Amino acid sequence: GISSQLAIKAIGIAFGVLCKAEMLKPGSEASTAVSASLANLALFTKIASLKSQGQSIAEQIKDKMVYIVGTGWSYPLAIRWKGQLNENAKQIAFAEMMPEMCHNMYLGYDLPKNIRCNSAVIFLDAPDDHEQNRKRVLLVGQDLAKVGATVLHPELDAKLTPLARLIAMIMLGDYVSYYLALLNEKDPAEMKRIEDLKKQL
C-alpha cells in the first residue's frame, strides 16, 4: 500500500514541477502556503487512518446508489469522489452541491422508496464551511437518515489547513473507491464499456 511519506512526496514532486514551470514562484505567498500545507498534511494525516476510514465507508455504501454532497469549496471534491466511484468501483454515484441540493434533490428524495432506502449520502463538510451550510448539512442529514438513507460524514483531523484537508480528502476518496472496487470484485483499470462505446461512435 501507499505510505504517507510516498503520497506527500508525490504531491511535493508535482509542486516542484509547477515551480520549475514558473507557474508557482519559489518564495511567493502561494508557494509558501503550499509548502506549509504539505508539512501540515504530513503532521496530521495518518495513511493507516485514511485506509481504515476508506474501507469502512466502502463497506457502508456497497450495493447502494450514492450521492456525494460538497459544501462550497468541497464541491469539486464531490465530483472527484463521484468519478472515482463510477470508474474504479463501477458503481452508481452522483455529485451534488450544498445549498442547491436543498431545493431539488432534497424534495426528490421521496420516491421510489426502495431506492431511497438503498442509497447513501456522503457529506464532504468541513469545520470552516459557512455556518448556514453547516446547519443545512446537519438538518438534511438527520432527515434523510430518518427516511432510510445511509448518511455519512467523513472525518479528518481538525488541525488540517484547508489545502491539506483538500488533499487528504482526495486521498480518502481514492481509498474508498479502491476498497469498494475490491468489494464489488471489479478491476479499477478495466474500461471495456468505454472502449466499446468509442468503437461504436
Name the features.
4 strands, 9 helices, four-stranded parallel β-sheet, alpha/beta, 201 residues
Task: Chart the SSEs and their pairings.
Blueprint: H1 4-20, H2 29-44, H3 47-61, E1 65-71, H4 75-89, E2 93-98, H5 105-108, H6 113-116, E3 119-124, H7 131-146, E4 150-152, H8 162-183, H9 192-200
Parallel strand pairs: 1-2, 1-3, 3-4
Helix pairs in contact: 1-2, 2-8, 3-8, 4-8
Write a compact overview of the structure shown.
With 201 residues, the protein is an alpha/beta fold.
Describe what you observe in this structure.
The protein has 201 residues and is an alpha/beta fold. Helices cover 59% and strands 11% of the residues. It contains nine helices and four strands; from the N terminus they run H-H-H-E-H-E-H-H-E-H-E-H-H. The chain has helices spanning 4-20, 29-44, 47-61, 75-89, 105-108, 113-116, 131-146, 162-183, 192-200; strands at residues 65-71, 93-98, 119-124, 150-152. It has a four-stranded parallel sheet, with helices on both faces. Strand 1 (65-71), helix 4 (75-89) and strand 2 (93-98) form a beta-alpha-beta unit. Helix 2 (29-44) crosses helix 8 (162-183). The radius of gyration is 18 Å and the shape is globular.
